[in-house]
Amino acid sequence: MPFGNVNVDYAPCKSVGALKAAAEYMLGRQKQQVESGVKKTDIELYTALGCNRENFANNILVTRKLNGKSYSKHKKNTILAHKMSISFHPLDNVDHKTAFEISLDFAEHFIHSKGFEVLFAVHTDTDHVHVHFLISNCNMNTGRSYRRSQKDLYEMSEYFGRKCLEYGFTNSVRDNFYNHDMGRQKDKLTFGEAQMKKRGAESFKDELREVIRIEIADPLNHTFDDVILGLKEHYNVECRVAGNTVSYRHPQYLNKNGEPVSVRGSRLGDLYTRKGIEYELATKYTRSHAAGRIVEPVAEGAAFERGRPSGSRGQVPDHATARDCGQALRGVDELHPRYSERAPRDEREPTAPARLAGGVPAKRKKRHR
């Protein structure tokens, strides 16, 4: 499956000044650009959808007013517009007109058709042809903010990759999806979790995040399946994988009906999804390889020798092997003392009843009465 280079690793425009500066930069109209003779684009290589291309900033500010969306220099966190870019490889010798045609189709498909104004320009001042997009953060019809999830970025990269192949730009695509700002993703906290964190409390989701990070960092884990296996063997965290979706079940957290609760990785944060875990494993591999101390990863389901995996844990076929793998790592007590205290009591006291995770505040327990 081909993927194109879609970059969203840009700071959004949070003021009118930043918005106008971004538009002027894209069109090569900043004072320093004009004085230095830099020509960023040509008149036939930029346009806007949903508004006037020569007055993009003022147009989207009017859209905000019509939809009751206020903005002020005193509201520093108000996002007025988002930035994005797509780029082609220099070896493909992409002509600017073709880049404009692909960009127009891309902007219409993913942005304007969803009700958002967008300005884009093909830049001609570098060896690699690239296109900048400036997207209004206010929907023309509903006033809602522009949202771009991990899934949306995946679909954009896939769509752009297919377009590149249609035009024969084989150097501009890659086999694997790569999100430029994956490594900068933050944990997704609900309002309740944020309040708990302010009080220094810990939720069951925090515990899940921590043990997942521990398994990702473990030097014996090279694949996604290794991480899932480690979570089960070392922390008794049940994982359910369906395609690209993974859900985790805390061994001690129960809902008000006394039933175990599962949470999707996307609810914890993008780094706890299948793609996030694979990204972190690939990053770990790259760092280790650069340091000259990498154990080459093996294929999923690799053969075992004498009850132990070669190079990776892979799929453990029986309990005996699973115990060997646990010993090959370190004990749970070493890895995570706090989680060990909350580990399933049936491993130590089979008759003891389950209890809520220690990080769940007393207030939640009262609400379940």
Structure overview:
- It comes from Ruminococcus albus (strain ATCC 27210 / DSM 20455 / JCM 14654 / NCDO 2250 / 7).
- Residues 331-350 have a biased composition (Basic and acidic residues).
- Residues 302-369 are annotated as: Disordered.
- There is one protein chain.
- The chain has 369 residues and is an alpha+beta fold.
- The protein folds into two domains: 3-180, BirA Bifunctional Protein, domain 2 (2-Layer Sandwich); 196-367, no CATH class.
- 38% of the residues lie in helices and 15% in strands.
- Strands 2-4-5-3-1-6 form a six-stranded antiparallel β-sheet, with helices on both faces.
- Strand 10 (304-305) and strand 11 form a beta hairpin.
- Helix 7 crosses helix 8 (224-235).
Q: Class of the largest domain in CATH?
A: Alpha Beta
Strand portion, in percent? 5-15%
CATH domain fold name of the largest domain: BirA Bifunctional Protein, domain 2
Oligomeric grouping of the chains: single chain
Q: What is the CATH architecture descriptor of the largest domain?
A: 2-Layer Sandwich
Low-confidence stretches: 296-312, 314-340, 342-369
Based on CA atoms alone, the radius of gyration comes out at 25 Å
Termini, distance in Å? 51 Å
Number of strands: 11
Mean pLDDT: 78
Largest sheet: 6 strands, antiparallel
Q: What spatial order of strands do you see in the largest sheet?
A: 2-4-5-3-1-6
What sort of overall outline do the alpha carbons produce when their principal axes are compared? globular
H/E element order: EHHEHEHEEHEHHHEEEHHEEHHHH
Number of helices: 14
The proportion of residues forming helix, as a percent range, comes to: 25-40%
Structural class: alpha+beta
Domain unit count: 2
InterPro entries: Endonuclease_MobA/VirD2 (IPR005094)
Region (Disordered): 302-369
Pfam family, one: Relaxase
Biased composition (Basic and acidic residues): 331-350
